[in-house]
């Protein structure tokens, strides 16, 4: 059974860093791509970053480029999202999702997100 579980959220001050983890089970990272999404209060869920199962290619939405880094550890079957220089605008519930690699014109989206985690809260204080 396919599962992804997020961890690593928390409260941090402006300019701080957090590293989120997405632990995968029921599949390996060469089978499904992993995407990170976030949803702030009163806003729609948006894609933040994605790493392709096909070639490991990384993609980011403009607002996080240069600050966030997605990576994967195949041995641990885990994908990470390193978030640096955080701002209050990054406050949201962060979700990871797994799914087949797809080509899309949506920036930072590289998968069909079939399997979702429960989310982890990231709060950035000013």
Brief sketch in words of this structure:
The protein has 126 residues and is mostly beta strands.
Topology:
Blueprint: E1 3-7, E2 10-13, E3 18-25, E4 33-39, E5 46-51, E6 58-60, E7 68-73, E8 78-83, E9 92-99, E10 115-116, E11 120-125
Parallel strand pairs: 2-11
Antiparallel strand pairs: 1-3, 3-8, 4-5, 4-9, 5-6, 7-8, 9-10, 9-11
Structure explained in plain terms:
The protein has no helices and 11 strands. By secondary structure, the chain is an all-beta fold. The strands form 2 sheets. Strands 2, 4, 5, 6, 9, 10 and 11 form a 7-stranded mixed β-sheet that branches. Strand 5 (46-51) and strand 6 (58-60) form a beta hairpin. The N and C termini lie far apart (41 Å). The model has no long low-confidence stretch (mean pLDDT 96).
Tell me the fraction of residues in β-strands, as a range: over 45%
Total number of helical segments?
Answer: 0
What's the β-strand tally?
A: 11
Query: Considering DSSP H and I runs of 4 or more, what fraction of the residues is helical?
Result: under 10%
Inertia-based shape: globular
Calculate the mean pLDDT score and round it: 96
Q: Give the terminus-to-terminus CA distance.
A: 41 Å
Structural class: mainly beta
Q: Largest sheet at a glance? A: 7 strands, mixed
Note the run of SSEs as H and E: EEEEEEEEEEE
Low-confidence stretches: none
Radius of gyration: 13 Å
List keywords for this structure.
7-stranded mixed beta sheet; 4-stranded antiparallel beta sheet; mainly beta
């Amino acid at each position: 059974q396919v599962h992804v579980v997020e961890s690593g959220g928390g409260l941090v001050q402006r300019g701080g860093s957090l590293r989120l983890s997405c632990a995968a089970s029921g599949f390996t990272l060469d089978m499904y791509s992993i995407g990170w999404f976030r949803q702030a209060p009163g806003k729609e869920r948006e894609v933040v970053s994605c790493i392709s199962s096909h070639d490991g290619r990384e993609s980011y939405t403009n607002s996080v480029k240069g600050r966030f880094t997605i990576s994967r550890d195949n041995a641990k079957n885990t994908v990470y999202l390193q978030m640096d220089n955080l701002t209050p605008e990054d406050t949201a519930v962060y979700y990871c999702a797994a799914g087949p690699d797809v080509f899309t014109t949506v920036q930072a989206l590289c998968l069909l997100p079939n399997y979702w985690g429960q989310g982890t809260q990231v709060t950035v204080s000013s």
